[in-house]
Here is the input.
Amino acid sequence: MLYAGGVSRPSRPNIRGAILAECANRTTSSPDVCTVVDCSAAACGLNPVAYMRPMLKANFCLQPPGDSPSRRSTFDAIVAGCIPVFFEHAAARAHYGWHLPRGRYDQFSVTIPKESVVMGDVRIADVLAAVPEDKVARMRERVLEMAPRVVYRRHGSAAELRDSTSYRDAVDLAVEGVLRRIRRRVSALEDAQPDAIYELEEDDDD
Here is the structure.
């Protein structure tokens, strides 16, 4: 498993501190179990190779919540074919439903309750080691299938990509999602159900 992020130890127990502590203990006896990429002081922002190369080799990429529920690292992991490991539902299913449909998360990610990790009730490495190898392979395949949904095509990309109706990138999905939302809200107003426009949407894309 791999963790890419800040490595400063928090003053109070939290999920990032628990991850760093487990990785420190694991790497002492089994260095291949956990890899830590230090992204402090914007180091990874200036040198993406520093974390993308290890992600390509890892089966699981840990995605603890930070200042906001979502992390850029989640999308980097998907592009690298690394299975995201979430520690709270708000960091995953509540966001980006157009690009990462909520009903599919179990197919391409793992969720471990952060409270269990912080309190020491479970070890992340043990949970991930219990996932059968054939399931890991299927999940990584699913992650790679999701990758085009979180990137965008270069303007000068090949004609078969520009003209394809089956290949949709992040921009395509966002535009389609906005149009669906507008149609849904217009329909709600026409049906005299204005409160319906504030309801949480189900997955907009399959």
Observations:
- Residues 2-150 form a domain with the Rossmann fold fold (CATH 3.40.50.2000).
- The two ends are 29 Å apart (CA to CA).
